[in-house]
Amino acid sequence: MNQLVAILITLFFLGLIVSFTVTHKLKDRYAFLWLVTAIAGVLAAACIPLLNRFAQWIGIAYMPTFVILVTIIFILALLVRQTMSLSNQSDKIKTLTQEFAVMEKKLLELEKAAEGRERS
């Protein structure tokens, strides 16, 4: 029964990800990561006895502890990825702002030069 509930919840999550991707609420760049995550969740829910044996094999007596450990590692990896993306976007915004300021200065200089020519 618990396994059935886990499978249904992960299938619901998979459906949400597909829905968000189809309606373009989730960009393709990130959709792949979340689709793989959802599919891994469905597979993990379907293989709970196998996960239990694997957890015992690596020395973890209580399988949910193994699942929580893997989840925490995944979340940390996702946070690092998002932080890298945020840093990259910040650099791009800084560069664009600087380029905009240079272009704005050149435009003002051109406007002043054109005004000077009109007066003469």
Based on the model shown, name its key terms.
120 residues, mainly alpha, 2 domains, 4 helices, elongated, DUF2304 domain-containing protein
Question: Any overview of this molecule?
Answer:
The chain crosses the membrane at residues 6-23, 30-51, 57-80. This is DUF2304 domain-containing protein. InterPro entries: DUF2304. The chain is mostly helical. The protein folds into two domains: 1-46; 62-120. It has helices at residues 2-22, 28-46, 48-57, 63-119.
SS-derived structural category: mainly alpha
Query: Oligomer, anyone?
Result: single chain
| Count of DSSP H/I helices | 4
How many domains in all?
A: 2
| Secondary-structure element string | HHHH
Strand content bin: under 5%
Give the end-to-end Cα distance, rounded to a whole number of Å: 89 Å
Instruction: Round the Cα radius of gyration to an integer and report it.
Output: 26 Å
What are the low-pLDDT stretches, counting only 5+ consecutive residues below 50?
Answer: none
Number of strands: 0
What gross morphology would you assign? elongated
